[in-house]
Amino acid sequence: MNWKRALGLDILSEKYSYVSDSAVGYIAVEKSADSWVPTTCGYCSVGCGMHIGVKDGKAVSVRGNPDHPVNLGKLCPKGLAEHYTLSGQGRLTRPMLRAKPVSWDTALDTMVREFRRVQARHGPDAVGVISTGQLVTEEFYTLGKLVQLGLGTRNYDGNTTLCMASAVSGYKRSFGADGPPGA
């Protein structure tokens, strides 16, 4: 047992020490970066600009990009925590097939083969795609064309139906309309 910690004399100064970062001012040592990499937040389709702080090849922090026209340096709580997802426990970094790592070529060939098998047996509309809300408009459009022309199916939802169903229900109950108030 650490008697200094038990008595409140050990304030964990190594763990909670700060350094001065030229980009952000005072920052915890564990979050100080060797370099800041500009990128776009991946949580939603707003497209906020951000900088990921990288130290020893790993993402350690994030800050909003003040020069980005969408968010002007501001980030929501999800965006502020995005660097945690890049090194999250259990995060996949390569394709898996039946719990075994495979190459991208194997994964994509298997996916194409299985989609074709299902469509050959049950028709083109036997497959569908439910997208994510994290795509921007151009990406939604491109994925929709891939689904329609590449897979030959009409079954595509850009996640708006699934995602917004609860929000629309809340809007209707709260405001009497299926959208938020305009002002």
What does this structure look like?
The protein is 34% helix and 20% strand. With 183 residues, it is α+β, with helices and mostly antiparallel strands.
- Which structural class best describes the helix and strand composition? alpha+beta
- Mean pLDDT across the residues is 85
* DSSP helical segment count: 6
Biggest beta sheet summary: 3 strands, antiparallel
Biggest β-sheet: strands ordered side by side in the sheet: 3-4-5
Instruction: Report helical residue fraction.
Output: 25-40%
**Count of strand segments:** 9
Strand content: 15-25%
What is the 3D form?
Answer: extended
Radius of gyration: 23 Å
> Ends: how far apart?
58 Å
From N to C, what is the helix and strand string?
HEEEEEHHEEHEHEH
Provide a quick synopsis of the model.
The protein is an alpha+beta fold.
Feature tags:
6 helices; three-stranded antiparallel beta sheet; alpha+beta; two-stranded antiparallel sheet; 20% strand; 183 residues
SSE diagram, text form:
Elements: H1 3-6, E1 18-21, E2 25-28, E3 35-40, E4 49-55, E5 58-64, H2 77-80, H3 82-86, E6 96-97, E7 100-101, H4 104-122, E8 129-130, H5 137-151, E9 156-157, H6 160-175
Parallel strand pairs: 8-9
Antiparallel strand pairs: 1-2, 3-4, 4-5, 6-7
